[in-house]
Amino acid sequence: VAGGGDASLARLQDRISNAYLSMMGHLERRHEQRGGAPLPKGSSEEEKINALALRSAGQSQLCDSAHTLRRWYNACRHERGQWSVGARPSDKEVARVIERIRGLLDLERRA
Questions:
Q1: CB-based contact 104:62 (threshold 8 Å)
Q2: Would you give the DSSP letter of residue 39?
Q3: Are the CB atoms for 97 and 65 separated by under 8 Å?
Q4: What angle (nearest 5°) sits at the alpha carbon of residue 38, between those of residues 37 and 41?
Q5: Nearest 10 degrees: Cα torsion 76, 31, 100, 54
Q6: CA 66, CA 71: separation in Å to the nearest integer?
Q7: Has residue 9 got a pLDDT over 80?
Q8: Helices 60-78 and 7-33, interaxial angle, to 10°?
Q9: 8-state DSSP, 82
Q10: Is residue 48 within 8 Å of residue 39, measured between CB atoms?
C-alpha cells in the first residue's frame, strides 16, 4: 500500500485501507438486506457513501466519519509515499474515526 521505506506509514495505510473496505462491505450488505435498489454503475465512492450512509437524524456522524475514512483511503491509494508526517492523520486520529464508525454500525445493528 505504501511507497518508500516507512514501516509505520505502511501500517497506517494498511489499517485505513482494511477499515475502509470493511466499512463499505458492511454498508453494501446492509443496503441489500434492507431491499435497497442497486446503486448506479459507475457511482463514485463518495456517491456510494451518500447513498449507503444516509444523513438521517442518527446517521450524520456515520456519514461524516465514512467520508473522512474515504478521503484517507483515497490518499493511501493515490498519494502513497507522499504523505508527510504533518499531512497524514495520526494513529490516534485514525483509531478514533475507525472506532466511531464501528460503534455507530454496532448501534445500528442493535436497533
A1: yes
A2: P
A3: yes
A4: 145
A5: 100
A6: 9
A7: yes
A8: 130
A9: G
A10: yes
3-state class percentages of the chain: helix first, strand second, coil last, to nearest 5: 70, 0, 30
**CB 6 within 8 Å of CB 81:** yes
- Within 34-111, where are the H helices? 45-52, 60-78, 91-110
Give the three cell numbers for residue 85. 508526517
Which bin fits 60, alpha (ψ -120 to 50), beta or left (φ > 0)? Answer: alpha
Q: Which pLDDT value is given to residue 69?
A: 96
pTM here is 0.84
Note the pLDDT tens digit of each residue in 81-108: 667 666 789 899 999 999 999 998 888 7
35-70 pLDDT, tens digit each = 988 999 999 999 999 988 876 556 688 999 999 999
